[in-house]
Design brief:
By secondary structure, the protein is mainly α. The protein is 73% helix and 0% strand. Helix 1 (7-20) crosses helix 2 (22-57).
Amino acid sequence: MLNCFMVSQVLTFLALLSKHRPDFVMFILEVRRDVTGIQDERKVVLQNQRSRNEDNMLPWLPPVDYQAQQHGFDSGRQPGTG
């Protein structure tokens, strides 16, 4: 919402507001701090969910035997094709 205002306009508004309603300015700063904290917590929750999802998917993936896979590729070649 504040993206439509220039930073200097916001700072001027807060300076004027602090002269007349310092309690309101403190309230705004507290809300901003709380929102920042919530955003940080949200990032941690999303990272934990992503990690859990990855941990839940790993057991479903079969192990890969690269030697047997390469042997299968080699044995599938047609004579004279390289």
